[in-house]
């Protein structure tokens, strides 16, 4: 008899686009320019996080 393994569901990462400059924040990749680690969720970014290209705020991003 073989052991049964439960597969964990794949984590779905989201992306968000800056409406000012078009920069895309991808949760899976993070943001090297802002020293945000890969896998960091949008909701876990600080409220004062800014777009690394145009300094737009989180309120300037839309989910893709």
TrEMBL record:
Belongs to the rubredoxin family. This is Rubredoxin. CDD domains: rubredoxin. Residues 13-64 form the Rubredoxin-like domain. The lineage of its organism: Bacteria, Pseudomonadati, Pseudomonadota, Betaproteobacteria, Burkholderiales. Its cofactor is Fe(3+). InterPro entries: Rubredoxin-like_dom (IPR024934), Rubredoxin_dom (IPR024935), Rubredoxin_ET (IPR050526), Rubredoxin_Fe_BS (IPR018527). It comes from Solimicrobium silvestre. Pfam families: Rubredoxin. GO terms for molecular function: electron transfer activity; iron ion binding. It comes from the Bacteria. Keywords: Electron transport, Iron, Metal-binding, Transport. Transmembrane segments: none annotated. GO terms for biological process: alkane catabolic process.
């Amino acid at each position: 008899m073989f052991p049964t393994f439960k597969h964990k569901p794949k984590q779905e990462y989201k992306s968000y686009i800056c409406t000012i400059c078009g920069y895309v924040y991808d949760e899976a990749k993070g943001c090297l320019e802002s020293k945000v680690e890969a896998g960091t969720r949008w909701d876990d970014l600080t409220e004062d996080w800014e777009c690394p290209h145009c300094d737009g705020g989180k309120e300037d991003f839309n989910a893709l």
